[in-house]
Amino acid sequence: MQNKWTLIGLFIFVFLAKPIDAQRKKEINQALLEDQIMAIAESLEEDSDVDFTTLFDALSEYYTNPIDLNTASEDELHQLYILNDFQVLSLLDHIEKHGSLESIFELQAINGFDVELIRMLLPFVKVSAQAEYQKFSFSELWNKGNSDLFIRYQQVVEQQQGYVLDENGKKDYLGNPGRFYTRYRYKYKKNLSFGITAEKDPGEEFFSGSQKGFDFYSAHLSYKGKGFLRGLSIGDYHVQFGQGLALWSGLSFGKSAYVMNVKKRGMGLRPYTSVDENLFMRGAAAVLGVGALELTTFYSSKYIDANLISDDSLALDEPIISSFQQSGFHRNEGELIDKDAIKETHYGSNLSYKKRRFQVGLSAIKTNYQADLQRSLQLYNQFVF
Known about the structure:
Structural class: alpha+beta
Strand content: 25-35%
Shape: globular
Number of strands: 15
Number of helices: 8
Helix content: 10-25%
Largest sheet: 10 strands, antiparallel
Oligomer: single chain
C-alpha cells in the first residue's frame, strides 16, 4: 500500500510540475556528452577526485544553453572544463583588443586554440552579434523555464553472492540488487535552479524495513545574479575556494598529463545535484559583491556515517568514533548502525578580490564534529586528516 501511494505521489508531482519543454532548441545528445567526458577523463590520473555526475550536469547545461563567447565572464569560461587559464586569458585579451568575435571560426586566430580544441568547444558555445545579458524576470519563470525529470534503474543480471540465502535462510544484504535513481530539476536561464534527487543503492532496502523511502535524498534552491546579491543557495550546495587546501567540495581535477591543469580553480558557490552522500554542504550560503570584491558566507550542518566505539566502561558526554564511512552504502545491519552516526557542522566565509590577471582571497572556516575522534593510527595514515 505504501508503494502504491508513493507511485501515485510521483505521478502527481510530474503532472503538477511544468511539462518538460518539448520545444527546446537542442535536445541533449547524451553520446556527445559522454564522449566529451571520456576525453576529459583520459587526461586524468586514476586517483583524480572527479565527480562525473556533476561534470555531466555542467556540460549538459551549456549544451542546451550555449555560452556566448563575446559576453562570457572568466568564471563562466572555466566552468566549461575545457579551457585552461592560458586559453581563457588569450580569448579575453583578443576580444578586448580586437572587439567582439564576428564568427566562431575566428577562434583559429587566437593563440592557444587549435582545430581539435575548437571542435570540442562548438557544441557548448556560440557567438552573438549583440549582447544577450539575461535579466532575472519573475514573469518569465513559468514560460521560459525548463523542467527535466530523469529516472534510471540498474541491476546486474547475474545473481550475486550477497543476495543468496545461506543455510539459515539469511543473506548478506537486506534489500534487492537494483539501483534506483531519480532526479527532477527546474532551471530558469542561469539565474534560478531548483532540484530534488533521490537514490537507492544496490542491496539497500526500499520502502521496507528500516528504510521508509529512498536511502538518500538531496534538494537545492539556488539563485545567481549580477547585483549586490550575486548568489544564494538553500539546501545542498558546493563551495570551492582557492586551491582546495582549506575548503573544497564537489568536482575536482587532480594531476594529469597537461601542465596547465596543475592549478585548481575554485568555482565559489554552486548547487549540488549529484548522489555522493558525503562531499557536499547542507544548509545555506550567500554571495555578496561590490565591483571586484566578493564576500561568501556559508553554514552547513548534516549527519554523516562513522564507526562508533562502544565501551560501557567509559562514561563520556561525547560518543567516540574510530573512522568516517564514505561509501554511502547501507545494505546490512552493520552499515545501518554507522548511518548518520554523528553530526558535522561547517561555517565560515571567504573574502576575495578578483581581476583578470590578479586574484587574492582569504578564507576562514570552523568545523565541528559531535564526537571524539580516536583513530586507529598506523605508519601509513598517521598524518592523514
